[in-house]
């Protein structure tokens, strides 16, 4: 979510509050994680599995990897849908569409069998865990089913797919790539369920990276910022959608006027993000093909990058105070309980 409205203020806080040792750690981390010129993985004879190829990042990546000569297994929720069929029309015969609902054990096991039966000579080089959903709501507007659905797709879907395909990737000493989000570490208003799913995903990927290092498998995490316009991941909903889920007590606390303001703010923020996905696709390609992939790819604007690189190192009192600079946060405080 865009944070340009308070970047100036937070820079002032950071310059005063971050210790010399923290600054040193940031500099070292930046040097270590910086993209370096490196050998590119040869595509011929290697396969890549991508989940969530109906649209968005996965769809674009499937095109790019196919053009580079990889055998691409494109997992789609709707293999007969418009997105999957456009991949078929616009790609080579080396791209294969798989029916793949990452929440389904049956789909994942069938996809595994199909991949095993159609592997090129050098095997499965990479799995890109891209399938995911997004939604926004304050925690008290959500139900336990909302959290279950989010986590089942964004976290357990990735775990389910990883466990199934890891033996093949381990055999080729390849790559595991996970599409996370800045909301894995940026605890923002209205993104509770999404943040839970992405923070869990990063914990899983971090543990996997340590375990796989001994096998020569590299694990990378992609952290996109505001790319809502470049994909169709964002779920647009009306004030009525939110209001009708609330019981009488919550309707008195979160009045309709505030929900209208929050909805308008969310929509306008989404429209302020990146309009194309090139930055994300380039990072995914680097993670799959470079001999020196990064552990994490933070994909935000140059202005926002300073803030987001510093954010995980700041004390909680400062990270919580950040939101006082948001005009929406101030409106929220004033409007709660109002008639």
Q: What spatial order of strands do you see in the largest sheet?
A: 3-2-1-4-5-6-7
Radius of gyration: 21 Å
The end-to-end distance, rounded to whole angstroms, is 29 Å
Described by strand count, sense and barrel closure, the largest sheet is: 7 strands, parallel
Average pLDDT, rounded to a whole number, is 86
**Poorly predicted tracts of residues:** 1-20, 31-37
- Helix count equals 14
Q: How large a portion of the residues is in β-strands, by DSSP E?
A: 5-15%
Describe the protein's architecture and organization:
By secondary structure, the chain is of the alpha/beta class. Helices cover 51% and strands 11% of the residues. It is built from 14 helices and seven strands. It has a seven-stranded parallel β-sheet with strand order 3-2-1-4-5-6-7, with helices on both faces. Helix 3 crosses helix 11 (278-289), helix 5 packs parallel to helix 6 (144-172) and helix 6 packs parallel to helix 7. The protein is globular and about 65 Å long.
Please give a quick description of this structure:
The chain has 14 helices and seven strands.
Features of this protein?
339 residues; alpha/beta; 7-stranded parallel sheet; 14 helices; globular
Secondary-structure map with pairings?
Layout: H1 7-17, H2 20-33, E1 47-50, H3 56-67, E2 71-76, H4 82-90, E3 95-99, H5 105-117, E4 124-129, H6 144-172, E5 175-179, H7 192-213, E6 218-224, H8 239-243, H9 248-253, H10 256-271, H11 278-289, E7 296-299, H12 302-310, H13 316-321, H14 327-335
Parallel strand pairs: 1-2, 1-4, 2-3, 4-5, 5-6, 6-7
Helix pairs in contact: 1-12, 3-11, 5-6, 6-7, 10-14
């Amino acid at each position: 979510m865009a944070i340009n409205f308070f970047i100036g203020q937070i820079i002032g806080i950071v310059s005063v509050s971050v210790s010399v040792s923290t600054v040193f750690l940031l500099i070292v981390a930046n040097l270590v994680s910086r993209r370096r010129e490196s050998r590119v993985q040869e595509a011929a004879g290697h396969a890549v599995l991508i989940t969530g190829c109906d649209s968005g990042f996965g769809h674009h990546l499937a095109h790019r990897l196919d053009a580079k000569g990889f055998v691409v297994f494109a997992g789609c929720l709707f293999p007969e849908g418009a997105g999957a069929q456009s991949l078929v029309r616009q790609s080579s015969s080396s791209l294969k569409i798989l029916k793949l609902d990452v929440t389904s054990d049956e789909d994942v096991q069938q996809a595994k069998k199909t991949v095993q039966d159609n592997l090129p000579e050098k095997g499965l080089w990479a799995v890109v865990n891209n399938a995911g959903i997004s939604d926004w709501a304050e925690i008290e507007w959500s139900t336990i089913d909302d959290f279950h659905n989010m986590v089942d797709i964004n976290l357990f879907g990735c775990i389910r797919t990883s466990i199934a395909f890891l033996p093949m990737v381990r055999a080729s000493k390849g790559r595991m790539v996970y599409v996370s989000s800045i909301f894995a570490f940026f605890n923002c208003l209205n993104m509770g369920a999404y943040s839970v799913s992405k923070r869990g995903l990063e914990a899983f990927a971090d543990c996997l990276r340590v375990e796989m290092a001994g096998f020569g498998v590299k694990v990378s995490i992609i952290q996109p910022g505001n790319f809502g316009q470049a994909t169709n991941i964002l779920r647009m909903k009306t004030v009525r959608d939110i209001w009708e889920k609330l019981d009488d007590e919550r309707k008195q606390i979160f009045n309709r006027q505030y929900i209208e303001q929050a909805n308008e703010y969310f929509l306008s923020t989404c429209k302020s993000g990146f309009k194309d996905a090139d930055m994300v696709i380039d990072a995914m390609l680097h993670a799959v093909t470079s001999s020196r992939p990064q552990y994490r790819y933070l994909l935000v604007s140059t202005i926002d990058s300073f803030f987001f690189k510093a954010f995980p190192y700041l004390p909680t009192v400062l990270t919580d105070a950040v939101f006082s600079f948001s005009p929406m946060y101030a409106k929220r405080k004033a409007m709660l309980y109002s008639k």
